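Hi team,

As requested, here is the filled-out complex form for the iron/sulfur cluster run. I kept the field names the same as last time so the parser does not choke. Let me know if anything looks off before we queue the next batch.

— J.
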Amino acid sequence: MEKRILGNTGIEVSRLGLGSLTMGALQKASSTETIKAVTRACFEKGINFVDGAELYNSYEVLKEMVKLNKDCVVASKSYAYDLPTAKKAFEEALRSIDRDYIDIFLMHEQESDLTIKGHHEALEYYLKMQKAGYVRSVGLSTHKVECVKATTKFSEIQVIHPLINHTGFGIFDGTLIDMENAIKSASDRGVGIYSMKIFGGGNLLHDRKKAVDYVLSKDYIHASMIGMQSIEEVDYNVALFEGGDVSNINAKLENKKVYIKDWCVRCSACVKACPQNAIELVNDKMVITEEKCLLCGYCGSACTELCIKMY
Ligand code: SF4
Ligand code: SF4
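And here is what came back:
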């Protein structure tokens, strides 16, 4: 598995990383046996990069990767915006992965310079932890072109985890070219880039090779995270990243959907949680527009009635 250095961070990562959202409690809630099997398959295929988040409830995946490779590159992120919430999130990440440092810690799902400024207390805390040796680099994740552009004003942002794929699926505040230019400009400044949603949250699975070839063709995308939940998926994606033959690998992937159950009380918490504006109230019913949905599961975590399911 080819490795790249993430911008000026000095951190060397495999071009394919294991995204843990899929196996975490928000989505599949995979068993410990499955997590162990999938992480071992990643380790054996040379994947040294794993991504999680406070929200995903998936730190078990990160911990298993670290058990297999103590130098594994671990990234996580949090919505924390002030000092107490940032400290809590950061300490929880260290405790849960059972290591005294984390490689990359990000502000989760930032939208613009305003939201970055609104999280300054959290950012300052992460930078303080970096100085103290508890984190190697700091940055943000985003679905927005505007946010990637805004990082020109914040030299503290060393890593960006942006949404990008060959069709531009899920980019709503600009075109694919706008996103490419913004990411390339950040990369040219030495910012490390690892992409998310290269399969559009499952919507681009019909041509996985095209999706992988696209990110591999962009030198400024140093690595890409893919959520994987079976050994076959690891084999399949590794083969795609290495230009190998996938014809004999049976990695059948179900196209998932989000469902809202009958007991919904129409509180609209899910509408606010959806970064894609994919949920709306229509004729007294919550409706999801599939063409916009990235299957990120954020709506499910916002629903206190537990009526959003993904399968
Ligand atoms: S958060 Fe849950 S209960 Fe509230 S509107 Fe959405 S689906 Fe319904
Ligand atoms: S509807 Fe739910 S799963 Fe789909 S993009 Fe919105 S928050 Fe994510």
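Two things worth flagging: Residues 83-97 form the longest helix (15 residues). The chain has two domains: 3-242, 258-310.

Thanks,
J.
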